[in-house]
Structure formats: C-alpha cells, structure tokens
Amino acid sequence: MTTPVWLCSLTVSPPFIIVIIIIIVCPGHRIISRVKHIKTMPRAEPVEYQFIHRRAGHVMVAFDKRLFVWGGYMELPHSESYTLMTPSKCLYHSAIDVFMYDPLLDTWTRRMSNGHIPLQLSGSCAAVHKQHMYLFGGWTSSTSDEYENSSNSLWRLHLPTLTWELLFPEGIPPFPCDKAACWVFKNRFYVFGGFGPSRELHTMSGIKVNFVRDSVFPSGWIDQLVYYDIENNKWVWPETRGPKPSPRAAHTADITGDKVYIFGGRFKETRMNDLHCLDLTSLRWSGNLTESAIQETPEGRSWHTFNFISENKAVIYGGFNTTQQVLKDIWVLDVTNGKWQQSPSEQAGPVLWHTSAVGFPGEVTFYGGIKNNLLDYSQPKMIAGC
Fold first, then answer.
1. Is 290 helix (H, G, I), strand (E, B) or coil?
2. Cα–Cα distance measured from residue 365 to residue 244, given in angstroms and rounded to the nearest whole number
3. Does residue 334 carry a pLDDT above 70?
4. pLDDT at 343 (0 to 100)
5. For position 85, what pLDDT does the model report?
6. Average pLDDT over the chain, rounded to whole?
C-alpha cells in the first residue's frame, strides 16, 4: 500500500485567518482534500503586526522545522487609476526583520537580524545550504532610477544567529535581475533565468547566454545558468548539453536527488507551461517534457509555486496565466511517469507571487501573494492578508 502524501496549503484572509488545505494523494493517485481553519495574528495585535502578512515578492525557506520569511512589499492604494509607467506606490518590508513560523505550534516570531543588512528587495530568490540562506538579486526601491533597479548582489544569512553577510565572489557575476529561480546542489548555489537590464556581452567571452529585450522597458528575459561555488567563493558559468530552456522570468525550480525541474514562467507575452529537467551530474537538459505528456497538463503560468513534497511528487499552486487571470488550481506531478493530476479542491483561493516551502516531508506551506490582476492598473492590488 502506498503511503499517502500530504499537502498543506496556507493562505491568509481577514482578520489573518490561516486556511490549511490538506490534500492526500491516495493509492491510485486519487486526491482527497479537507479544510482546517486556524486563527492567528488578530487585529488586536500591535499595528506593525497587522502588516506582516500583507506581503508579495518575498522569500521563504525552511530550516530547523521552521519557515523563515524575509523581504517583499505591499501595494498601497492609489487615489486614481494609474498606468504601467506610473511609479508604483509600494511599501517595502524592513530588511532587518526576519519572521519565523513554527508549523507545529502555529506561532509567528519576529526577530531583528544583524550584520551587513541587504537592501529592501522584492523578487529575490533564496535557497538554503547547511545553516545559511543564500539570497540573490531582486528589485530595490533604494535607487534613483524609477525603471531599472535590478540587483545581482549575493547575500547569505546565518539562520541560527540571523547574521547577514554580503559576499564578493570572484568570476563573472550573473545579470542583475529579479524573478529568477535558484536551488542548491552539493556546494553550489544555482541561479537560472530572470528579468533585468542588458549588459555588455563582449565582456563575457566564452559564455553562451541569450538576452531578449522587452518592448517597453530597457530590461529583458535571460536564460542564464550560473552557480556560486560556495567553497571557492566564485561565480561559475557551466556548459550544458541538450536543449536549454528559453529565457524566462517568474518561473519556478525545485530539486529532487541530482535533478532540478523548472516549470513555466513568462517569456515576452507568453506564460509557459513547459517542464524541463537538468541532470546536475551530467549537466544535460531534458528538453520540454510537457510536449510528451499524453494527458491534461497545467496551463501556462508565471508567479506560481512548485515544490517537491516527496522524492517523486511535486505540487504546483496558483500563478498568473497569459490572459491575465489569477489562478487557484493545484496540480501534482509524478516525475516517475511524467503524469499530472489536478486536485479537485475548491478551497484554495486565487493567488500569484506567493511563496512556498516544505517544512516537513510531504507538507508544503504557501504564504502571502496577491489575489487579483497585478497588471490591472485601474485598481490597487489586493495583497493576501488584506
């Protein structure tokens, strides 16, 4: 008999009610769900606590049976309709604060970090290696340029002491960008893709990378694959074999064993549903695995989440499709046979640019995000938790 796989979905709604959606993948891949409500962070809490859940573009990682949340922003109301070129009215969350969630006790803890504190960022990516969280890139509001504030800085946070360190690796750094995906394999912190400004490619002799400029902004989509060699403090651009995924941003990646799977993301005006696998031992790309699927597959999306909850099963939740609809569907992928199965659960709400992390085997927690169309400039954004 197959051991059931549990999916724990966490969303936030007024007044900060955490809704837990538990999905059980039974033998035969049949999916059952039920809902559990847990109240936390009531309105009676201090004012600053009323805002911690109103967060998008943040990072969340699992370490020592807790979930660590950092960064991101919340959208503030506009008094009138605004356009793509109107400077956004955002409140970036403090870069000093780190919030920790204990799934077993259902408690939040706020701590002040120390050391070389990063900039206030959204759209960064983060992954854990041993006792450190590595944080790359993102978009900052701390510069004078209204339209190009991308970063390619690399920080690491010592999670037991919450001490930050800004790293200065040797080698050619990645493109400055936000909305990249990252993962850790052995002693390497990998970064793939992203959206950011162009750079002088002639200074990157011998490196194969595609940059496709956006039609509006001076930035574009990148297919960069680069890793930080943790032991030698150096950026490395590995050569790979096989069909490399196209440039993209707001995609997702997660690792199982010695393989990383990358799903979706946006390239130009298309939000994709392609699935690629990179063997991290041979550095060979699989090509688009979605093309060979014989059954229904998730529609194309960006700003979604993708996590392995067991060695062979991964879960996708939410996102934003090509027709600018915010998605609420949940899919389970079995990488042993390439089959997708959609959850029949209707309790999960629509959300994009949220985060997720696996705190315990078989359980993934989703947090924050935006409930409505991020590109609809006629109305303010509804941050999950508002």
1. helix
2. 30
3. yes
4. 83
5. 52
6. 83
Q: How far apart are CA 179 and CA 194, in angstroms?
A: 5
Q: What is the DSSP string of 70-121?
A: E--EEEPPPSS---TTSPP-EEEPPSSEEEEEETTTTEEEEEE-EESPPPPE
pLDDT score recorded for residue 143: 61
Residue recorded with tokens 């990682």: 61
Q: How many CB atoms lie within 10 A of CB 375?
A: 8
Task: Report the distance separating Cα 263 and Cα 315, nearest Å.
Answer: 11
In order of their start, the domains of the chain are 5-367 (2.120.10.80)
* Whether 37 contacts 20, CB under 8 Å: yes
Question: Do residues 91 and 142 make contact, with C-beta atoms less than 8 angstroms apart?
Answer: no
For residue 205, give every residue at least 6 positions away whose Cβ sits within 8 Å of its Cβ, in sequence order, or none. none
Q: Which of 176, 189, 187, 276 minimizes the C-alpha distance to 226?
A: 189
Cα–Cα distance, 386 to 384 (Å, whole number): 6
Q: Is the pLDDT of residue 118 over 70?
A: yes
What would the pLDDT profile of 2-57 be if each residue is shown by its tens digit?
A: 333 333 433 333 333 344 444 445 555 454 444 333 334 443 444 455 556 789 99
Read out DSSP for 152-205? EEEEEEETTTTEEEEE--BSPPPPP-BS-EEEEETTEEEEE--EEE---GGGST
